[in-house]
């Protein structure tokens, strides 16, 4: 049995769970996952659309809504495969002066 798909699923789950809790996501963690996505497709284990479906399932599990709900129906146009739309929430910013 190939271990790439279960590993990819676990990484999606961990990344999106961290982001849903409000934790930061190190860029290296996202980039390694994107490389694994590409490896899955290059090895012929799954097409890109199936990888996107798996990512969307894990995203829904963490956030309770789909990637399309948060990034629009055409989110892949802005995040071409294998990019993952995984960003931490913006930090609150408070003005330091009255200006």
Tell me about this structure.
With 99 residues, the chain is mainly alpha-helical. 59% of the residues lie in helices and 0% in strands. α1 runs antiparallel to α2 (27-42) and α1 (4-20) runs parallel beside α3. 14% of the residues are buried.
Looking at this protein, list some descriptive labels.
99 residues, mainly alpha, 5 helices, 59% helix, 0% strand
What is the strand and helix layout of this fold?
Elements: H1 4-20, H2 27-42, H3 48-63, H4 67-71, H5 75-78
Described by strand count, sense and barrel closure, the largest sheet is:
none
- Order of helices and strands, N to C? HHHHH
Q: Mean of the pLDDT scores? A: 90
* Helical content class: 55-70%
Compute the number of helices.
Answer: 5
Structural class: mainly alpha
Poorly predicted spans: none
* Multimerization state: single chain
| CA-atom Rg in angstroms | 15 Å
> How many DSSP E strands?
0
Which percent range describes the beta-strand content? under 5%
**N-to-C terminal Cα separation, in Å?**
62 Å
Task: Please summarize what this structure is.
The protein contains five helices and no strands. The chain is mostly helical and 99 residues long. The longest helix is centred in the first third of the chain and has 17 residues.
